[in-house]
Amino acid sequence: MEKRLRWGILGTGVVAGELTEALQFTGAPVTMVASRNPEKAKKFAKKYGIPHAAQSYEEVARSGEVDICYIALPHNLHAGMCALCLGEGKHVLCEKPFTVTTAEARAVFEAARAANRFIMEAAWCRFHPLLLEVLDAVRGGLIGEVGAMKADFGIDDVLQNPNHRLLDPDLAGGALLDGGFYPVTLACMLFGSSPQRVQSSRTLSERGVDLYTSAILDYPGGRQALLYASIVHEIPDNAYLYGSKGYVELENFFYCRRATAHLRDGSVRVFERQFECDGYEYETRHVEECIEQGLTQSPILPWEETLRVLEILQQAAAPDSRKD
């Protein structure tokens, strides 16, 4: 790429900081940052050496010094911010979940198509080299015919802060939409299709957000994905892929750097690979490559795949989640 894309950051949370570090690691210029609180933007800019702390999100979207906006804001703001940035001619990388509903996502994708701008959900795990290596090996027959998978994701400190965004229904909080995204994404990556049926059981807070949710996704051929997400329980964030010849354990599957295949013949195969930076560098490089090629969507994470994940999350969140 002769001229690197100039990035604007919308949001100053932990993930925004980690992605900024990855951008700087790859040499991508980060020219502007904005927060709901301008003072937070100033502190973020100082910490990461960003030239300008904007007074508003709109300032970043309209700036001539920004080519692509990275959106790392509460879930309920994603659709509106995507539309704003696209309307100002910017490419967009938007944190997961892309939007709260499939209807919102479709509207955003139509806006991207009309603006002829690239947009992608920031599902970083889809670009992690080790996870992709393991899935390739599984598809190649490492554990035989795959019949099931199980994946858990938990955050155990949310209840310590009564004002936490994940406890706020107005911010589209809850375990399923935030953490459940990862198990559902892994199921989509493994099986490559939509489930025939989604069943779930949820425990809700007094304010109506799910504190923890378990779900079963039934796929053709009797295959199943068993998923669990929680914002109150400390959980090893591991995943297991079960086949006719053995199984694979993925440690911390959503940022996987180690996996072990246990085969029925008694052999064990270990996969290990460290990130170059913090794991976000793979998706940001991919985004820049796509834009350089003139694409409006990623061939690895196309819009239809984002819609597939959102549809499953919506079904699991429905009062009667069973879909026959």
Automatic annotation (TrEMBL):
Annotated GFO/IDH/MocA-like oxidoreductase domain residues: 133-248
GO molecular function: nucleotide binding; oxidoreductase activity
Domain Gfo/Idh/MocA-like oxidoreductase N-terminal: residue ranges: 5-120
Pfam families with a match to the protein in the record: GFO_IDH_MocA (PF01408), GFO_IDH_MocA_C3 (PF22725)
Keyword set includes Oxidoreductase: yes
Keywords recorded for this protein, A-Z: Oxidoreductase
Record flagged with keyword NADP: no
Family: Belongs to the Gfo/Idh/MocA family.
Stated name of the protein: Dehydrogenase
